Fold this protein.
Amino acid sequence: MQAGNARYRTEGDLPAAVAVFPLSAALLLPGGRLPLNVFEPRYLEMVDHALAGNRLIGMIQPRLDGALKANSEPELCDVGCLGRITSFAETGDGRYLISLQGVCRFRVAAEDAVKTPFRQCRITPFLADLDAEAGADEVDRAALLQAFRAYLKANELEADWESVSRAENATLVNALSMMAPYGPAEKQALLEAPDLKTRAETLIAMTEIALARESGDDFPSSLQ
């Protein structure tokens, strides 16, 4: 799994505006793959629109404070992630099963006034995300895997350790962040981490806090 995609190398390869899919607690990161079950009519139309065009959708969370616009639609977080539709299937009951591959994060510049039932925003892409392994050497891989092992053990879960051992640092950090069973605020913090090193450190801290709570401790020693 590679961050971004070979077809996206410069700002000119990315759209100035994109249809956005507001979905709470859903996290897409560069290079990650996010499966989605789409059934709401306006988002079915959004997928049709994307497939007929550049195949890109902007995944973004509703604002964490629950604020609403005048039309009762949720306000949006400032930062989301562009995803390219890489697989598509239609079910017999009218749903779409799609998979998005993360390309790069973006900041919402403005929401466009559109006639489509789905929302569209002008965006400023995080161009540094197009470099698949930027900052990967700075990740504390050992600490990340230690926290991951401890979480799996505490929750009696298994992992494909052969695949984990083969994964590059960027792939590992982003995949584990997307898999982490945390809430919207934690997901947004992982998304907005400025670099891979910080994202890994944030994920480790979240995991250690979760483990401490499960064991009844106040805080793990590394966070005191």
In short: The CA atoms of residues 76 and 130 lie 24 Å apart. Helices lie at 41-52, 141-154, 161-166, 169-179, 184-192, 196-215. The radius of gyration is 18 Å. The chain is about 30% helix and 25% strand.
